[in-house]
Design goal:
Elements (H helix, E strand, L loop, with lengths): L1 H12 L4 E6 L3 H12 L4 E7 L3 H10 L6 E2 L3 H9 L4 E3 L2 H6 L5 E4 L4 H13 L3 E4 L2 H18 L3 E3 L4 H14 L3 E9 L12 H7 L3 H8 L2 H14 L11 E2 L20 E6 L7 E6 L3 H9 L7 E6 L4 H15 L12 E7 L17 E7 H7 L11 E2 L14 E2 L5 H13 L1
Parallel strand pairs: 1-2, 1-5, 2-4, 3-4, 5-6, 6-7, 8-10, 9-10
Antiparallel strand pairs: 8-11, 11-12, 13-14, 15-16
Helix pairs in contact: 2-3, 2-13, 6-7, 7-11, 7-15, 8-11
């Protein structure tokens, strides 16, 4: 961040801002727009695209921009930006293909539409930053392959738990401490929460009840664990992770010994643990002199050490990811190669043949993280891919759902990319 803010200050001083486009108009997208338009130096949010252009208009208006101009094509967008105007559009292709855009932020929350945005942006030479976990967890490795070919960055955002955890991972690794476990703090978990149970809270907060349901039922936890695993090579020890109830995240160290990490690292979570938000990394170093110093510095006796960040601020910290991508070609967190983690859909209730699955945070299923090779062997259906699949047979509550159990919607890009991903990585 110290290098990033200095580089952004130089961009600001020389009037060469990073040109950012945002796709999405929901609550989080509005928060992102607010941060770029009120606090970000050396960057300019030149355009917002949303299928309902009124929401794009609102995002600008709420952040103090009264008169964005509506455009319908890349050429119109380029003219607007070159004349100093902010632009709104219902045509996401315009922001993915305009020459005046350096980076695209995907913030729609819709796995199929968002996947198409990411691919379009990448093949047209745009760095691409994600704020939703569904796409990265499902087709991130193959999108990273496309980004490498195009010479651009594909990254999940800083500020959300995977980005925070990877920052910690890189920090401890740079000091010669071997990361062995990464995860996040989870305050509450109920697999059967749904949009109805979360409606009152969502109304009070002005958010989507399905989004809050996916937090509460653990589906977002699973998606983010898959992102962490695919970026680090770490895997869940058991399906869904074990989860460690504890008073403070530091107490997790009592549950492990160095031998637990002799062959592989893990993704995990602490349940109900102070400081109640953020992400953490456990690392290992058994050098005797370094252990003495760490004890003196109140980091514990070792050789396992806990590093954590007690906050995560995705709409604010996404600006760091944008800057790192454009200025340093540095992804905050991105798949390292072949997938090692995936998610599995589980029935929230007894489901009947012919029912349509309603995806992440819905009424029909929740998601658990699992090793990718197990998912491939058992042909399990990922939670983010489950949306609009129709059941071919009954599924009992708390049973996994497989591809054999459903008819997929026809013609989906996300399904084609998953097939390509499996073939590409073998």
């Amino acid at each position: 961040m110290i290098i990033v803010d200095t580089a952004l200050a130089e961009r600001e001083a020389s009037n060469r801002p990073i040109r950012v486009a945002l796709v999405g108009g929901g609550y989080i997208a509005r928060c992102i727009a607010l941060q770029f338009l009120t606090a970000a130096k050396g960057m300019r949010l030149v355009a917002i695209a949303n299928r309902s252009v009124e929401k794009a208009q609102r995002a600008y208006n709420d952040a103090g921009v009264a008169d964005p101009v509506r455009v319908d094509s890349p050429e119109e967008l380029e003219r607007a930006v070159e004349s100093g105007r902010y632009a709104i559009t219902d045509n996401a292709e315009a922001v993915c293909r305009a020459g005046v855009v350096d980076v695209v932020i995907e913030a729609t929350g819709h796995v199929e539409f968002g996947t198409a945005i990411c691919l379009d942006a990448i093949v047209h030479g745009k760095h691409t930053i994600l704020i939703g976990a569904e796409i990265d967890a499902s087709v991130g490795p193959i999108l990273k392959t496309y980004a490498d070919r195009a010479g651009v960055v594909f990254s999940y955002t800083d500020g959300d738990e995977p980005g925070v955890a990877m920052n910690l991972y890189r920090f401890v690794d740079s000091m010669g401490y071997r990361p062995v476990l990464m995860g996040q703090l989870k305050g509450f978990l109920d697999r059967y929460r749904n949009p109805d149970t979360q409606l009152e809270l969502a109304t009070r907060l002005g958010q989507n009840p399905a989004v809050l349901a996916c937090f509460a039922d653990g589906s977002k936890l699973a998606l983010e664990a898959a992102i962490m695993g695919n970026a680090s090579g770490f895997v869940p020890k058991v399906r869904g992770m074990q989860g460690y109830p504890c008073a403070h995240v530091n107490d997790m160290l009592k549950s492990f010994s160095p031998d637990d990490f002799a062959s592989e690292g893990y993704v995990e979570y602490a349940l109900g643990a102070a400081p109640h938000t953020g992400a953490f990394v456990i690392c290992h170093n058994d050098h005797p002199e370094k252990r003495k110093l760490m004890a003196y510095l109140k980091m514990g006796e070792g050789p396992l050490y806990m590093f954590y960040q007690p906050f995560h601020l995705p709409p604010w910290q996404i600006t760091h990811s944008v800057a790192r991508a454009v200025l340093f070609n540095d992804p905050t967190i991105t798949p390292r190669g072949a997938p090692v983690c995936d998610t599995v859909s589980y029935a929230k209730r007894d489901l009947k043949v012919g029912e349509r699955l309603d995806g992440v945070g819905g009424f029909t299923c929740y998601g658990l993280v699992e090793r990718y090779d197990v998912c491939r062997r058992e042909n399990t259906l990922p939670i983010a891919v489950s949306l609009d699949c129709r059941l071919k047979r009954d599924i009992a509550k708390d049973q996994p759902i497989t591809y054999d159990d459903v008819d997929l919607p026809s013609g989906r890009l996300v399904d084609r990319l998953r097939a390509e991903q499996a073939q590409h990585f073998g």
